[in-house]
Amino acid sequence: MIPALREVDEVQALYLQFLQALADAGFRGDITPSYANRMVLATDNSIYQVLPQAVVYPRDNRDLQLLARLADREDFHSVVLSPRGGGTGTNGQSLSDGLVVDISRHMNQILEINVEQRWVRVQAGVVKDQLNAALKHHDLFFAPELSTSNRATIGGMINTDASGQGSCVYGKTRDHVLELHTVLIGGELWQSSCIDEARLREISGGDKRSAKVHKTCDEIARQKADLIEQKFPKLNRCLTGYDLAHIRENGCFNLNSVLCGSEGTLGFVAEAKLNLLPIPECVALVNLKYDHFRDALRDAKHLMDAGPMSIETVDSKVLQLAMEDIVWHSVSGFFPTEDRPVKGINLVEYAADSEEELESALARFTTQIGEVIGQPGKSFGYSIARGHAEVNRIWAMRKRAVGLLGNAPGEKRPIPFVEDTAVPPEQLADFIAEFRAILDEAGLDYGMFGHVDAGVLHVRPAIDMKDPQQAAHIRPITDRVVALTQKYQGLLWGEHGKGVRSEYAPEFFGELYPELQKIKAAFDPRNQLNPGKIATPDDSTNLLKIDAVAIRGEYDRQIPAQVWEGYSEGVHCNGNGACFNWNPDDAMCPSYKATRNRIHSPKGRASLMREWLRLLSGHDVNAIASARKYRERSFFVGLPKRIVNSLAKMRGEYDFNHEVNEAMQGCLACKSCVGQCPIKVDVPEFRSKFLELYYSRYLRPLRDYAVAGLEFLMPQLAKLPQLYNWPLQLKPVTALMESAFGMVDSPRLSQVTLKARVRELGVPTASKACLEALGPTQCSRAVIIVQDAFTSYFDAKVVSDILRLLKHLDFVPLLAPYRANGKPLHVYGFLRQFQRVAQGNSEMLNNLAARGIPLVGIDPSMTLTYRSEYKKLLGERAPKVQLLQEWLAEQQDHLAQQRERVRPGSFQLLPHCTEQTIATASLKDWQTVFSALGLELQTENLGCCGMAGTYGHEAVHKETSRVIFQQSWAAKLSHGEGNQLATGYSCRCQANRFAGVSLRHPLQGLLAQLKN
Ligand SMILES: Cc1cc2nc3c(=O)[nH]c(=O)nc-3n(C[C@H](O)[C@H](O)[C@H](O)COP(=O)(O)OP(=O)(O)OC[C@H]3O[C@@H](n4cnc5c(N)ncnc54)[C@H](O)[C@@H]3O)c2cc1C
Ligand code: SF4
Ligand code: SF4
Question: Which residues of 661-682 are buried (b: 16+ CB within 10 A; e: fewer)?
């Protein structure tokens, strides 16, 4: 039995008083001092881990003003506030041991779009892709680009002055900021934009904080003009943070140049008015392949002469990571690698307002490269992607590359600390050669890619930060890279901002640094706003130091190696935030999207898991050994203790186990994280391990037993479906189901059983004797359909329609005997029982497959269990069960011969989220199958339907399930048209429940197209 975990770091009394004062003053947002919330916000994508005192989620500008006003009160002068957006910083930018002010949860509205004047007004928590999705209808876009565009907020972009691919043409975020609404310490809401000298004098004359900051910045800009000119480098990626070099531009004074890149150290950006650009009509990307990364880098210099919009270089390591990722299937056609290995790539982008213009630019470019192609040091081949759809697919792959760089097998993980240097582009190749020498000398492995047009290099050396000796590399390597960037007149902070690396600012700025301190002092005299970054208000306090802030590795090394390895599916989360994906039509984490609560995200759950393992280790409890012991025990051993503990839980006694449990209970076990997280964090896997141990201490709800046992009861219940279905119509029974078992809207058993349908169809049950009786021709057309409880018993018609279709198409279908698959057992953490079921089921399926006849499952989620949960448990002994479309796509020649028998038609596929993310390539298989039969099939981009097995039927989750459904599926369903097809039982069920739409399975769609 695991112990109660009560000894967590407590919130300081001052902060509790501050939070109370905040609530008393009418703060309308959320106040969360829970340990779980604090823990989840203790990390970003950096190596650091800093536990905040609490997290608050302001609802509006007034809430921000309240915070800033309270912080100005004398009794709260030592309270520290750190704004937070998406939390995707790579250098601890948003980490704080004070109060985190997360602006992203509520303040995320697009307030006004002015198409004619091409500007937009947004709240700071709007995500960059969210904004561009809204602007797309107007053929406009917000130009500054960054790899984290699907989760980074506008507030975060402004505060790091973000930029990325295309920056040579589009510049940085600052270049597109027209106006900012910033809450200053004391509570003043200041609106800053480009102003003339008269207005500057007027503002500076007042006695408010806004007056002081204008006066201070103006004086410094005037008095130190020469020094500013000398210190701020003339790079495309010019210096971020208190950018005095651009405070006077185009004849006006603009405080926004100081605010942009200030990393939350000067105020809370609440709203922004942003400049928009028209989306280029026509785009193309030339993808050049090289034998060496250094060739790609050196060649980029010449390619730039041809005037493309942007050039990005990718090395073989990054390319290899992309090839192993789900993203690859969408771009592989552009990078054929069979003939010659590709060790470097240049992605060269062109944009134009007309096809003619674009084609003539491309013709000029391809002629230029054609003259040297294949020569030493030059590209040996290229492909061209044309149009927004194709180009965006390749950029999406490139964007994922930064995240993928964080993934590597083993304990040495690529980490950011010198990951975004910038030097003059013409020096980049030489700079990289020296950079490589530093890393090679230290014996570090790394992958690289860069915005070569801007001279920016991305590199993440692989280090095991749990090992103090390896962690000790951080200081000397950073020092040497800083010196190297100085040698090349470049910057350590070329793209991702300063954060903890602000330590190098005083040395870099020299005698200008005290002026930066004056700016900080004017805005924030007591160093309350995100202290330790960019500048301190005076010399009485220090900037953070790269090796003096607590690192994650220090905590991680407290977890024993065996436990760390046993939970490897969760512990390597590096906080890159890809699971905070904004797009509702993307499957990534429905529980986060529906709740906007970060504990209900893969990162949240992984962070809590790490902390849980660490706290258990502090009690000398090894989670792996405890699970082993627990599995050997009878249910009744420890039952009285579990009852006592559960009574304590009911009395509200604190135990961190409950906080972790809450986060795990919110998970739908949809597995989207497994496919989409660049680090392949697998929440359902560690969630079930946690639940197993949690319920070694506490009593399980009856619901768990009911759901986990359903697969086993089905065959008996299905004998008399009416007897099961009838009571479910009665109110007292549904009320009892809800109160006793926590289940709602229970599905009804199929009235006509599968057994009866199969008998009518004459489909045999696959048995040894039956399989042996098949002749060679029959054998070559035979397929064994593996049953699952949901389709076979609740949707029997789908199974029989599939069998009917297969027969019509001259296949020889057989039905595997029904056996529980065990997925519900796994989901609910009955791991001992799952082990037994999986072993028995595998044995049966492997015996059936012995003659080489393919095993094929119907429901995507249940079928994919064989290649994930079964595989983890049984390795190669796990049965190979294909998805229907995977097997049918292999039969495409045979299908093509049947085309004459099929009426033409077009369909829309609504895929299951697990299928989309775990078996992404299989979506193309559906298209292959349909097109082999002469039918059109278009695949929709969709999020999760919200059902995920039984999650949607659990009373506590019904409303979240509905919200998830509304976010993506509801809008995609075309009522009344029968051409929409859904692969998942859950999805069909949910569409029926919440929208009254009956969807067919894709093979039912095909069956209906058969002539006669
Ligand atoms: C895999 C990966 C790839 C990346 N690629 C790029 C890239 O291509 N280009 C690039 O520029 N960056 C990149 N970054 C860095 C990061 O995504 C950017 O810095 C981004 O702009 C941060 O936005 P955010 O919303 O996550 O902000 P956060 O990380 O939450 O905050 C960043 C800083 O802004 C402050 N802040 C946030 N919101 C506000 C507000 N409303 N008011 C005041 N201060 C605020 C915070 O205090 C913090 O100092 C990458 C990061 C990762 C993990
Ligand atoms: S769970 Fe995956 S996607 Fe989410 S922050 Fe961790 S590593 Fe990134
Ligand atoms: S399984 Fe689904 S709901 Fe659970 S953490 Fe992963 S993506 Fe989120």
Answer: bebbbbbbbbbbbbbbbbbbbb
